Amino acid sequence: LAYGLSTILVKPLASVTKSIEDLTDGYQKDEISVPDYTETELITDAFNKMLARMKVLDESRSEFVSNVSHELRTPVTTVKSYVETILDGNIREEETLVPFLNVIDQESDRMTSLIAELLELSRIDNRQVQLRMEEVDLTELLADCVRRYRIHSEKKNQTMEMRPDCPEVPVLCDCSRIEQVIRNVLINAVNYSPEGAAVTAWSSIDTHRGEGTLHIADTGMGIPHKEQKRIFERFYRVDKARSRSSGGTGLGLAIAKEMMEMHQGRIEVESVPGKGSVFHLIFPLYRKESEDEEE
Question: Strands, DSSP E only, in the chain?
Answer without folding.
Answer: 134-137, 159-162, 170-173, 198-206, 211-218, 266-272, 276-284
